[in-house]
Design a protein that fits this description.
The chain is an alpha/beta fold. The chain folds into two domains: 277 residues, Rossmann fold, CATH 3.40.50; 32 residues, no CATH class. The protein has ten helices and twelve strands. The longest helix is centred in the first third of the chain and has 37 residues.
């Protein structure tokens, strides 16, 4: 009996030691994989799209390949707005998109393009082919939909927000508004931030810029909107939204949004209207108080708001997320009345956290 207990004790001790050693060695990889699994915005599984949406193939004007997209044509006799919704960093055209049903509910045109799929190959990560594919998708929707050309909207969150910034700077189409939520603007900075967090996104950036071997900073900057020239006359209004806790509880620090706003403002000649250094420090350290005089985003308070002509930055109470119901209400307001200084109150609906996948009810 004593021998059996001793052997059991020895086996348990050895097993615990081995498991502890393995966890110590592989925990960073396991943690990164678990994060990728629970991140709705990083979910690569195909969703079941409603029958009203057609899967289409769009010939690329860049290289002739066929780009997949989900497309919805407005059925009304009158031309309707077009929503061009851009997938997240690791997603593709089949990724779940909360804006799809909202657009369908309004009877609008909608397209969800692939633009070279997940951002871990050289053809993705805001390559010239990505911009060309987004433009091709817009043109396809215009040619095959029932589109009000004065009301074209480009929108995305996280990696989709990153692509939205790229489209803002380089699209050939006239767009009413670009709405970029929690975007990446600087791949060099995000590589180091992701590497520090032991996140898979650091390796994705290496794959995009050097085939996975090292950080090619020149290549990374060439794919970073923060380092691109701003056209003298941008093709539309830009609104940037970021949750103040992103970078703490989310994967993209709000510095990406703030610095891009300043980059655009500076190049458009608004040097005196930049987000000031003291405000940047206060936002990054979460040292600013919530304010109730800057408008609400659904049920969320706003910490900071800066607007110059057709450029808007809003830092709200939240993390790495889009607020789909609010976002669509904002698009409707701009479509109906043009850009307004007053933020709309959101109707009852849902709020999606793109970091955890949680969906909340707005009342």
């Amino acid at each position: 009996m004593k021998k059996s207990l001793y052997l059991l004790f020895l086996f348990s001790t050895l097993t615990s030691f081995v498991l502890g050693t393995l966890m110590g060695q592989y925990y960073p990889q396991i943690r990164s994989r678990l994060r990728s699994t629970i991140n709705r915005w990083d979910n690569t599984e195909r969703m079941v799209w409603p029958d009203a949406f057609s899967e289409v193939r769009i010939p690329s004007s860049a290289d002739g390949t066929k780009q997949h997209a989900y497309f919805l044509k407005a059925v009304s006799g009158l031309p309707k707005p077009l929503v061009v919704s851009l997938h997240s960093w690791s997603g593709d055209y089949s990724q779940n998109d909360a804006l799809a049903n909202l657009a369908a509910g309004e009877g609008w045109n909608y397209i969800h393009p692939d633009f070279r799929g997940p951002n871990w190959i050289a053809d993705s990560c805001l390559s010239d082919r990505v911009i060309s594919d987004i433009d091709d998708a817009i043109q396809y929707a215009i040619d095959n939909g029932n589109v009000d050309l004065s009301n074209v909207f480009v929108v995305g969150a996280s990696g989709g927000g990153y692509a939205t910034l790229g489209a803002y700077l380089k699209t050939r189409h006239q767009v009413k508004a670009f709405l970029s939520w929690v975007p990446i603007s600087d791949l060099v900075a995000w590589y180091h931030q992701s590497k520090h967090r032991e996140s898979k996104y650091a390796q994705d950036i290496l794959k995009c810029t050097s085939g996975g071997t090292f950080l090619n900073e020149n290549e990374a900057k060439s794919r970073s909107p923060l380092f691109w020239d701003v056209p003298e006359r941008p093709k539309g209004r830009l609104e940037i939204y970021a949750g103040i806790n992103d970078g703490y509880t989310g994967s993209v620090p709000i510095s990406h949004s703030i610095l891009f706003f300043n980059h655009v403002a500076r190049q458009l000649g608004n040097q005196d209207d930049l987000v000031e250094q003291n405000d940047i420090i206060g936002l990054l350290t979460r040292g600013l108080d919530e304010r109730n005089d800057l408008g609400m985003l659904g049920t969320r308070n706003t910490y900071y708001r800066r607007e110059i002509d057709s450029l808007l930055l809003v830092i709200f109470q939240g993390s790495h997320e889009m607020l789909p119901e609010y976002c669509f209400e904002r698009i409707k307001m701009i479509a109906e009345q043009g850009a307004s200084l007053e933020l709309p109150k959101c109707k009852t609906g849902t709020v999606t956290n793109f970091e955890t996948g949680d969906v909340y009810l707005i009342k």
